[in-house]
């Protein structure tokens, strides 16, 4: 019996949750319920798709040119940046940590009483030379909304520094036509202007590359998309920042047509004050995505 078939035998729920080989032969969890369909890759513990039944287009963006290879992060969906966010913290280490290029394990799958679905994934402590003693759990709830809760627990004996983010790629028809609400009067750091500080004035419009760290906690952002005739709501909790990103240009795994169809609204705990996670303590960061 193959590993994927074993997982399907152990964790599938008839007509509700199944496990298959997906792109790159990585195991994928496919969820179907009365509210939505969803797809989760065990590689990276990464949401790839969330499609509410009333939606005509996926709420998540997955690049048509995404690379599904060991050691390469998947472009799109909701990558997990952990145990650090941003540039590598040491030589030979990857940007945004190693969680998004590791194979996660399934802890449980549940069909809840209201017909919604829960999937719990784990990334146990590993021998990476950093973040020793930190265990990572991702709780995914697929229902009327998509809720991700990223839980870091210090199961070791020494305090540890950690930063993390849920790097959500949201799908839009044309980003330059969208209006992003919920950031007015919020201070931000512009990563494209040598970390210069600004204050957002009014709604945010994106017509060029953007990489901003908005210093706001427990906030709700709305993307009004007139071309898809919908509004995507992103409610973040446990975060100390909201990162907004669009490269404004093609990348090796993102064509010129594709980057116009996405914007990242990321729930991030950047831990800028350097607080250490004490033994037995837990840090929770979440994002909830819905459509109206």
Give an account of the 3D structure.
The structure is a single chain. Strands 5, 11, 12, 14, 15, 16, 19 and 20 form an eight-stranded antiparallel beta sheet that branches. The protein has helices spanning 3-11, 256-259, and strands spanning 17-21, 27-32, 36-41, 46-52, 80-81, 105-111, 117-123, 134-142, 146-154, 160-161, 164-166, 169-171, 179-181, 187-190, 196-199, 210-214, 220-225, 230-237, 241-246, 262-269, 276-277, 282-291. The protein is mainly beta and 292 residues long. The model has no long low-confidence stretch (mean pLDDT 95).
Q: What does the secondary structure layout of this molecule look like, with pairings?
A:
Blueprint: H1 3-11, E1 17-21, E2 27-32, E3 36-41, E4 46-52, E5 80-81, E6 105-111, E7 117-123, E8 134-142, E9 146-154, E10 160-161, E11 164-166, E12 169-171, E13 179-181, E14 187-190, E15 196-199, E16 210-214, E17 220-225, E18 230-237, E19 241-246, H2 256-259, E20 262-269, E21 276-277, E22 282-291
Antiparallel strand pairs: 1-2, 2-3, 3-4, 5-11, 6-7, 7-8, 8-9, 9-22, 10-21, 11-20, 12-20, 13-17, 14-15, 14-16, 16-19, 17-18, 18-22, 19-20
